[in-house]
Specification:
This protein is 25% helix and 24% strand. It is an alpha/beta fold. The chain has a nine-stranded mixed beta sheet with strand order 3-4-2-1-5-6-7-11-8, with helices on both faces. β3 and β4 form a beta hairpin. The protein is globular and about 70 Å long.
């Protein structure tokens, strides 16, 4: 029997990336899409504890599809416990329009959806197509990312350890131009020029930033994508800094004085 697969994203239910991904995943099993009703990029791991979340079923789709007023993490919870006709075997989040590399994973709704799935016990994969999206007429090679996503889902779903998920970033190139796949660690992405003041609007700012890809560390996701490779980064929900545990215990867990 095929897998039961939940698909979501942070670009919205109408994104061409999610349409392509859901259609390609059909060959692995039963696919259900639960995605935000609009763009939720950079919303991170917000959960709608206080606000009601509405769901609308959409017709004329290749798979059962639901539009949600909430966040990507909300969509995972709704799909897993209500809309998938059974607990999912796999969550795939994407295909995001734009990279989720380095420190940007902390802001990403795409990655947060995979994290939420991991927290509730679903193996997960986040998928992003990397590129500079200044011109809407630029070619977008969704097929390159979708092919790799399906291969990873098929080969690794049952082998992802509990508490971990995979973050896949794919250069925006034709399949034949991809140089290969690298297994990487998360890089550091220290931005410069973080603020732009809008002079004509008083004390109003735009939060932005620049990063020079020449600064990408060896073996990182940033380096791999810069050099034309797809990046596969295993990530974890447990943020404990294990390297500091022993030192802190020695310093802080001292016996109480008599």
């Amino acid at each position: 029997a095929g897998m039961r697969i939940l698909v979501t994203n942070d670009d919205g239910v109408e994104s061409p990336g999610i349409l392509r991904l859901a259609d390609e995943l059909r060959r692995l099993g039963d696919v259900t899409v639960v995605a935000p009703d609009g763009d939720r990029s950079a919303i991170s791991h917000r959960i709608s504890f206080r606000d009601p979340v509405g769901v609308v079923a959409l017709g004329e789709r290749s798979v059962p599809t639901f539009s949600c007023t909430g966040t990507p993490a909300d969509c995972v919870v709704l799909g897993a416990f209500e809309l998938c006709d059974g607990f999912p075997d796999l969550l795939v989040s994407g295909i995001n329009r734009g990279a989720n590399l380095g420190d940007d994973v902390n802001y990403s709704g795409t990655v947060a959806a995979a994290m939420e799935a991991t927290l509730i016990g679903i193996p997960a994969l986040a998928v992003s197509l990397c590129g500079m999206w200044h011109d809407a007429s630029d070619p977008t090679y969704w097929e390159t990312a979708s092919a790799l996503a399906v291969d990873l889902a098929e080969q690794w779903r049952a082998r992802i350890p509990e508490g971990l998920f995979i973050n896949l970033n794919v250069p925006n190139v034709r399949p034949g131009e991809l140089r290969g796949v690298r297994v990487t660690r998360q890089g550091q992405k220290r931005y410069s020029d973080r603020l732009i003041r809008l002079e004509d609007e008083g004390a109003v700012y735009r939060i932005t930033g620049r990063f020079d890809m020449r600064l990408a560390g060896l073996g990182t996701d940033l380096e791999a994508v810069r050099d034309g490779f797809a990046s596969v980064t295993p990530m974890k929900s447990d943020r404990t800094a294990d390297s500091l545990l022993a030192e802190l215990r020695e310093e802080l867990e001292k016996p109480a004085r008599a």
